[in-house]
Amino acid sequence: MARNDAEAVLHDLFVRGLGGDAAAYRDFLQKLSAHLRAYLARRLFGWPDEVEDLVQECLLAMHNQRHTYQSDQPLTAWVHAIARYKMIDLLRAKSSREALHEPLDDELAVFAESATEASDARRDLSGLLETLPDRHRLPIVHVKLQGLSVAETAKLTGMSESAVKVGIHRGLKALALKIGKSSS
Predict the structure, then answer these.
(1) Which residue of 87, 94, 101, 162 has the smallest Cβ count within 10 Å?
(2) Sign of the four-CA dihedral 5, 8, 11, 16
(3) Whether residue 118 has pLDDT greater than 70
(4) What is the CATH number of the domain that holds 132?
(5) Average pLDDT for 41-59
């Protein structure tokens, strides 16, 4: 399918989906997923494991922001803009994660084992988590702290599994930023 044909098909399905045609919207999401997978795979050649997660984040963002699309504009330009922002978020997160793997000095207070410090840490973590919106805080609490699966958390919170994954990712990123700001 030529580029203009793909644009026309995606645009038609999306506009029909916005108009309430559930089958057209489902077809749009399937075709868009394949389009995004190819688009992102070309750009994230060294990180094939990240592509599928990024596709899901893009689809979720596009669904949530569908009201911002102007139907007289090319759909793929709008889609690619969202995908680029999500890719930039991923690259930023990757670079901050790499910093987390730097070796720790033995003298750091991180290695202290007093009950008081553990209590302080729990209080600090609770305070940090309280600063997050529920859509980020609840997935982190249930999956990362309580050990529930993504599916169990989705069922418990009424969120989709994709929303739970995105909530964890964004919540942890927000916490990392808050911790980084407080330590500088």
Answers:
(1) 101
(2) negative
(3) no
(4) 1.10.10.10
(5) 85
